[in-house]
Give the backbone structure.
Amino acid sequence: MPRNPTAAANESAVMRAETRRRWSLALPALTVITLCSILPLGVMVAYSFMEAGQYGNVQWGFSLEGWRAVFLDRDFFDDSYIPATAHLTILARSILLALATTALTFVFGIPTAWFIATRPPATRAYWMFLITVPFWTNLLVRTIAIQEVIRADGTLNRLLLATGLIDEPLQMMFTNGAVLVGMTYVYLPLMVLPVYAAIEKFDFRLAEAAYDLHASRLYCLRRVVLPLMWPGIVAGSILVFIPALGAYVTPRLMGGGRAMMWGNLIDLQFGQGRNWPLGAALSITLTLVVVGAMVWYARRAAKGAETNG
Amino acid sequence: MANKRFDVTHVPGAATIAIVTFLALYIPVLILVVNAFNGSDTAGWWEGLSLRWFAAALDNAAFRSAALNSVIVALAAALLSTCLATAAALAVTRGRQIKGQGSIAVILNQPLLVPEIVFAIALMVVLAQVKQVTGYQGLGYLIAAHTTFCIPFAFLPIRARLSGMDLTLETASMDLYAGRFYTFRRVTLPLLLPGILAGFMLAFVISLDNVVVSSLVKSPGQETLPTYLMGELRRNLTSEIYAISALLLFASISIVAASWVITRTKQ
């Protein structure tokens, strides 16, 4: 049947009206996010290419000094460029601590998710509730809780002193280890949730089939269970790694000035450091790393859906 | 042979590690709560059960004003972000694909893509200018900031609820000469309500818990509970801090428990 030109025009008019109506529904939310999040981020990009003001803030004028300072310092004596070891150490520490946190949440989170997913369906919800409660509790409060355990006159030290295992309290606070313990404690539920979702969907008859075909326990785990759990593990790792890399509260309380992380370094540049272009450049770099990790994950997930479906 | 059936779900050691994990998650929080109820003058020495630190906190004007600010900001931000997210979810979830639908979804989730400290500092830099120009120093900035990062959280459950909803009910309503608005109010909204409620609660908890954005965006002298707590921590760990932490803990747990009960009874 030949298409009626007036009907087609009508249809496109209807479509246009619908597009307009639905865009206007989304408009208030889009406006708020554009004004309060996208625009400020644009300002940060601009600031990273400006000159530092004497008392903080920026001065008009194009400059690459902010970006230079991320990687290179001026030598104190002959003004030559040397690697900015102070910053680079902090950036390297942030990446390593975020990776170590991901690894530790993996070690504790995977068995926990497995345990919950293999409970009878009736009790599973209660176990999951126990994981979601810390997830929704104040991050600052949970950091205070773990700080109380490991600080010099905290619970662990008093316990060890009382049992006579040590004579002097162990100084555990304000070290890389303290930050690692704190972040693992705080971000653990983020690993358990997606991994649990993956294991719960797993059809255990597949494992039975593998055992029937004389697969060993380890072989079955490696070749049958793990590949099917993999999307959940990748999702959990991304969910832990990203907030850990940009963490601010936990390293500040557990690490102080001695075990500073990327987020604290940014904050410092806008506070006492008074180098806003450097702070802005550090912020944009962190954002790019985080967005890069997410894009990589999204691509991977899309590819996985293609091959599975 | 009375052999136990071979259990494929059994992995040696998993249960042990899981129990250790649960204990490790909960023991520090329990210690904190116990400390909050400690009657002793110095934190750490146990001197019997007491509510004195809760009383001290409630007696503290700075704490009361911080608590009030927290509740005002969380309520306002949760309400605003839920309304905005509901409208946006209605725009992008159902019906025919419209032009630019993908970019709407990306913009709605943009606050989640940016690290929190970067979002907070960028907003602080911009708002410093706004504060200078307008002279306004009120809670409006905190409400705007919290609304922004609450939108993607409120959006999640609402969109999930909408995408599982049947379009034919609305078509039927329209076929029976109900107007667009009447259909929304009497058909769409009641069906969507559990999603909206979940979104509101999520946004409320997220706002109540926030410390990084609040501490950078707030005006001088303004405090929310978490920023007040952060400031007190810089001085010393006192039993009052434990009491305030315990109060925040109870607030979050009761909200999560409430939403858990609501979603379970719905199923």
About this structure: Residues 49 and 63 of chain A are 5 Å apart (CA to CA). Chain A touches chain B through 84 residues (CB under 8 Å). The mean pLDDT of chain A is 89. The first strand of chain A starts at residue 50 and ends at 52.
